[in-house]
Amino acid sequence: MKVVGSLDILYLLAILETLLSLVAGNSSVVVVTHENLQQIIDTNELVLLSFYTDWCRFSQILQPIFEKAAAKVVQKFPENGRVILGKVNCDIEDILADQLDILKYPTIKIIRNGLIGSQEYRGQRSVEAFFQFVERELSDPIKEFHSIDELKNVDVGFGIVIGYFISKDHVEYDNYRRVASLLRNECRFLVGFGDLTKELRPPGKNALIFRGDPSIPNHKNQYSEYLGNMTSFKELTFWIDKRCVPLVREVTFENAEELSEEGLPFVLLFYNKDDVSPIQEFKNAIQSQLENETRVNFVTAEGKLFKHPLFHLGKSLTDLPVIAIDSFMHMYLFPRFKDIHKPGALKKFIDDLFSGALHFNFHMALEAKENSEFIIDTAEDPPIVHESKFKDLKPSKHRYTLVNRTRDEL
């Protein structure tokens, strides 16, 4: 007799709930196709789009949950233009799915202010979790300050954008709020109005400034003023995005799936949480030597949290700091942390990944191991290579139906 698992029960219940909903004919989830997609995203502040297929059991389990969440959202935000939860049947809209690079089902895209980016909803798939996410996304992304002393004592963190406006009733402030809504997870946004900001902006005009991470010496974006068109959503988004998204990000179990799906190899710094000075050394080296490097993601990883991949590299907490590349096929160990201060050393390490030199040396090392008479003739130590461990943090087959794709081996 076949034992029915919990996932099978959820799957059957989901199908039943979906059928009952269809019979009732009441759905708060909007059916989205290639014909109405643009109109929907152009006329709504926030759109959550579920890309699904009828044969995907994870999609079937999600559907009634998404329906209930949509009903709750509509009840809380009934006004037009605020938020829509929609669904795209990828069996029918296969071209649209390809255009948006849908590689797993269900994929829930987050679309803010008409911009379709790479960001997805990756949280818990429950009615309450969806509802709380929408509430948070529709909350005001800008904090108003009421005294200049507040600005003096503000925690800059990785960076803040400060707006000095005549009043809220201005198209330039509306544009600022739209951009802040889009980039709320990348930066902090402050604003002051009226006489409070009169001495901080040009007469009769509004102004925006960016204050960057003060711990990075000589950072060109440590302080800058926006000189572009205050009503241009595209220009302002580009200006803030360039300053707010850090060159080096921290990888955690919460964001690892999202970072890995960007498809770029990780250049990792494993560090000891009791000594964070190597993080600053790493950031400074990247800032001064590799600011325009776009082929990889520079990330820091707390050694104790990621002790398994660290152990896989043959290292322990006592060996930290350690630098490695994870290409999602292999992990390559950078010989010595102190070498990041040698001009060109870290760049060569990355270049060797993309030229195939690291991978070539990997196969040479394997051949040498199998044939003791084979000698690698090189002036440098060959890179230490291991199987990727961060690939295990990519989207899981226990949460998604994955679409097959090919990828060059690095």
Secondary-structure map with pairings?
Blueprint (H helix, E strand, L loop, with lengths): L5 H19 L5 E2 L5 H6 L3 E7 L4 H20 L6 E7 L4 H6 L4 E2 L1 E6 L2 E6 L6 H12 L3 E3 L3 H5 L6 E7 L5 H12 L5 E6 L13 E6 L10 E3 L7 H12 L3 E3 L5 H6 L4 E6 L5 H13 L7 E6 L4 H6 L9 E5 L3 E4 L11 H11 L1 H14 L13 E4 L13 E2 L8
Parallel strand pairs: 1-3, 2-3, 7-9, 8-9, 12-14, 13-14
Antiparallel strand pairs: 2-5, 4-18, 5-6, 8-10, 10-11, 13-15, 15-16, 16-17
Description:
With 410 residues, the chain is of the alpha/beta class. It has helices at residues 6-24, 37-42, 57-76, 94-99, 127-138, 148-152, 171-182, 233-244, 256-261, 277-289, 307-312, 345-355, 357-370, and strands spanning 30-31, 46-52, 83-89, 104-105, 107-112, 115-120, 142-144, 159-165, 188-193, 207-212, 223-225, 248-250, 266-271, 297-302, 322-326, 330-333, 384-387, 401-402. The protein has a 6-stranded mixed sheet. It is globular, with a radius of gyration of 25 Å.
